[in-house]
Amino acid sequence: MSELPTAPSAVAPGERGPARAGLHARAAALAGALVAGLLDWFYPRHCYHCGVPLEESRARILCRSCTEALVAARITGAVCNVCGLPLAAQPVDGVLCITCRAEARHFDLARSFLSYAGPASSVIRAFKFDGQFFLGPRFLAAMLDRGWLPADIGPADLVVPVPLHPQRRRERGYDQALLLSRVVAARLGGRLLVHALVRTRYTSQQSLLPVGKRWDNVRGAFAVRDAAAVRDRRVLLVDDVMTTGVTASECAKVLKKAGAAHVQVLTLARPAP
Ligand SMILES: [Zn+2]
Ligand SMILES: [Zn+2]
What we know:
- This protein is of the alpha/beta class.
- It has a domain at 74-204 and 217-270: Rossmann fold (3-Layer(aba) Sandwich).
- It has ten helices and seven strands.
- The chain has helices at residues 16-42, 64-73, 98-102, 118-129, 135-145, 166-172, 176-188, 211-218, 227-230, 246-257, and strands at residues 109-115, 158-161, 191-192, 197-199, 222-224, 234-241, 262-270.
- It has a five-stranded parallel sheet. It has a two-stranded antiparallel sheet with strand order 4-5.
- The model is unreliable at 1-15 (pLDDT under 50).
- Residues 47, 49-50, 52, 62-63, 65-66 line the site of one zinc ion.
């Protein structure tokens, strides 16, 4: 606060008292505004999805009706045994989706909390693209508090974030998968291994590419930094959104190659097919 710019003063030399008092008042007002601004940023006054004012509690990020929509977006019905895709969306007999029937997945199992639509997508987009780094961990912790962890997710020895390329981390200012992984490790147990996986090259954002190009985009883009740390371990890979599962599968491939015993994938959401 000591470097606050001072406005020109009309007070004569020797009469600094009132000017200083005014300066203190302005500094206090500015500090108050800063605190209020920070509070509004961390604890928004409006619903992240529809924008209506949030009534009673600063702990909320969505209004009541958007919270209800979120409950409806929870993936709770029949899903593909491997990748967790809701099967109601596909005319498929049995327990595997079309993609998992057609090609091998390197992970053993992937599950998501929510369908990526409506309020869930607004919250995740703000977390991922608008600098709201605190939002993903709060959102994830709230879902875990409600007992929304997909039932098939089993215990893991290691929690590993899907890695972000350092250049993208610089662009975004934080690593969203790492922030989520911290919550997962703290709540579910398992040792957080931050740099188990590294990106060996910069890749285009998967969701911006046609499906046919996504394998080429991530093939060979990951490496295990310390094979001894993952050997014979059960790994829980964490990311924000799983789209085709190509990135998760490529990460699982190098983890398995390094000796990981089992690889599960947990994401906040996945788009409906
Ligand atoms: Zn709302
Ligand atoms: Zn599948």
